[in-house]
Amino acid sequence: MAPQVKTRERIIQASLELFNTQGERNVTTNHIAAHMGISPGNLYYHFRNKQAVIAELMQRYEAQVDQFLRLPEERPVVIEDKAVYMERLLAAMWQFRFLHRDLEHLLESDAQLAERYQVFAKRCLHHAMQIFQGFVDAGILLMTPLQIEALTLNSWIVLTSWVRFLCTAMKPTTELDEQLLRRGVFQVMALEDGYVAPQWQEAAREIYDSLYVQLDLHSHPVA
């Protein structure tokens, strides 16, 4: 018989589900409690407010990203690592997609969360530059230190603004499509296309193709 999931963990999972499908702004603690079939008081016993739930989810998102956004410890990087990094990035973005959709609002509403996110962002940028340098050291990318820095910043800008682009220019439903997020990861890979060493371009192209998703960019609105 499977062990019973503790109420605190159930609250976290229910909140994540509702935030992802309905949008964080549309979900209250009463909604979460009703969805779980528990009293609001039971929820408040574990989390004093919705911000505390969000903080816990942000911590889990950070931990998941920190786990994979690292250079291998005992070997140089190989071209296959590109696909691994991209797929894990996509998985994290999809699992915590409400953070990407509602990030600006969340940070404006919670100064402590905003401060913590800045630390997280700088940590991600630092490790991303190390990873790009690892691909340069392995001869897979041909880049100068300044190009590595620029590519890192551009990649971050694309990833953190991609969902906003989808919600404004592409008008998806409230519940985002995983394939549209996949295209955002492809956009990051596309940024480094011109830096791939000739002998690795075919292998890199296979990774690009696995991430590519068609967008409807050619239809014109009625005037």
Automatic annotation (TrEMBL):
Record bears the keyword rRNA-binding: no
GO terms for MF: DNA binding
DNA-binding region: 28-47
Taxonomy, superkingdom: Bacteria
Alphabetical keyword list: DNA-binding
InterPro entries: Homeodomain-like_sf, HTH-type_Tx_Regulator, HTH_TetR, TetR
Presence of the UniProt keyword Lipoprotein in the record: no
PANTHER family the record matches: ACREF/ENVCD OPERON REPRESSOR-RELATED (PTHR43479), TRANSCRIPTIONAL REGULATORY PROTEIN (PTHR43479:SF12)
UniProt name for this protein: TetR family transcriptional regulator
The organism of origin for this protein: Pseudomonas marincola
Lineage: Bacteria, Pseudomonadati, Pseudomonadota, Gammaproteobacteria, Pseudomonadales
